[in-house]
Amino acid sequence: MHRQTKLRLQLLLGTALLAAPVSAFAQTAPVQTAPTAASAEPAGLDDIVVTATKRETNLQDTPISISVVNAEALADRHVQSLMDLADGSVPSLRIATFEARQSALTIGIRGIVPNDANQPAREQGVGVYIDGVYLARQHGLAAALLDIERVEVLKGPQGTLFGRNTEGGALSLVTKKPTGVFGMRAIAGVGNLESYNSELHVDFPALGDFAFKVDGIISVQGPVTENILPGQTGFGEYDRRGLRFQTLWTPAENFTATLAADISKDKNTPFYSQLLNFNPNGLTVVPFTSATVPSGSIRGLSPLVQVEGSKRMTQADIGVPQQFSVDDTRGMDLHLSYRPTDSLEIRSITAYRDLDVEQYDNIAGAHRPPVVGPNGRFSRYSLAGFWQHQLSQELQAVGSLGDSIDYVGGVFYFKETVSDDAATPSTNQWNADGTGYTILDPTPTIRGFRSLDRKSTAHSESKAIYGQATWTPASMDALHLTVGGRYTWDDKDGKLEVVNNAATNLTFNSKVDRFDPLVTLAYDVSNNINVYGKYSTGYRAGGASSRSLTYRSFDPEEVKAYEIGLKSDLFDRRVRFNAAVYAMDRTDSQIDFSLVTVQGASTRNTLETINAPGTTKIRGVELEGQFRATDNLTLSASYAYTDAKVPDTVNPFNGQVQQVFISYTPENAGSVAADWNSPFMGATLKAHIDANYADAAHSFEQFAIKADSSFVVNARVAIADITTRDGGPLLEVALWSRNLLDETYVYRRDPSNRNTLGDYGNFNNPRTFGIELRASY
Asked: Among 55, 235, 643, 710, which one is most buried in terms of CB atoms within 10 A?
């Protein structure tokens, strides 16, 4: 974007924010729109519908700790991908890139955060679902969001109703369905960093028993850090595009069939991994031109290398070959619903998804290994392919027995095949004194000519049967007892076919049968105050590390959780306050240990996963509240405290018992927000601001050092409901900003090479801002 245009947008945004009567920050739950006329008392907060128990229930009546981010909140925060929720808007939900790659996300809840599930035989600890369909891989999760109605964040083990790999919780995305009534929404916007976005959502008029809906989205951003090598992509860029088609068939009042198909392409580049310090251990520095580096010494840096630990580099000091990494995701799902009686619904969910990833991450130039001297090769180009396809089938029966028992039961089948390969050639070569470099022959970066670090394939097959029932005694209708359980049969196997470009025949095979129970006792203190106590379990499947030289396998980890909670609507529903206190005991915790080694002109990151001894203890508190202060102003806040202690574990690379940690989990995290909504010159003025804080957290399980604390402010001001002419669209014009104060912090810090170079890390996104136009019919 032109410099003068940027300045104008900044001035407009600043003026609008100063004029807006906002005083606190943003929401994680819907707010009721302002009424047309003032009243003596503000209206109450709206009910929030969730599907955490496989049926639609009121959030305040559901005895589970849940945060909900609705469509309005997503728009207010300019959330276009799950990656944007890394700002901390839901304090218990932690989202980070894997390494610095935008192509794969690490998602955690309540301290269950797998650092490296970016392998065929590794699993996530938090389940991610779209319309009830499980997404088994981290790859593709940063794709553009296609018309999301709400995001439900279910906290704590969901092993009974959701099953495997939900020991920390579940992230459930619910999309908007066809209505059969014509409607169209169009969005277009531009912003700094050469960004632009557009969306089109069309509901077509019903054609007989059929209703159709089409959603399309484009979201583009230029580089956060420029690459100085001409013709090559920069760092932190993305180009996300998606298309989804749905058709709803309703041949009878008691039967519906919804068929959906989607395709997404996420082109992206990693955030720049920059050197944060040099020689932090105070070793003797020898000149860059030195032929050798004696023990206890460290080679000096090239004069071209910049060390900047306090701010994000906007231009890389070393130019490197780099192109977009590309995630292609595709899927189809068929939902059937049949109601033979008013008290019973039978459902079927059939889904197929596949994923194709081509990774090109030349992430750091000379800021990370290989560390070499005169005429040496450097700049590690992480090249990988990743392919996955999955098939799932679920049958559910949801119903009631009289007025006292509500139940859900089902069977589930899942099958998956995943494969990958990886290579890490160096792309640059120093001259004799480090004052210049050349770009090497690109042939080793081409598939078929690469020297592979690894190649592997894994298969998973999971079968389960589950049931859950809630009993409300007729003589005590304020008491609700829920009992449930799930029995799972898990089969996994894998083969590591190549290690360091040599064929191998390393395999693993795992069969696990397990039962996950749930017991909840809830009591309605009054119509608007509910308390509950819950016991639940969950697990993350075992597997093997394809980054290991021996394909070392590891066992499943499991969690037993105890939770007490409060849900309340007070003062004529103008104040909502929910709280949960929990204790989770995790056994066989899967802990990652990594070792970076230099092998000729490339480096290898060897990773071994160990099941920690004893019990990992995770304790926490979660608080959420909303306050309808006036008809125009709604305030909200949320807070999460997490204390996690992992037993000391043997490091497999040196045989020493050492302290280990939970990654990407701050001890304290909080979010506050304010939303203003009022009439304005025949239209509606909407203003939103939120602030999100998190303590510094560990980036790796094996290192005590932490990254930085964070404080991110987002804001949006809009004039909505602008009428055009009779029958014309309603318009909305908005100014938005993410990271309004341009806070700069390191979210990932790697100290593994302190004796050869120094810490390197990745900074968050800078301030982004723009203007957006919405039209709806």
From this structure: 235
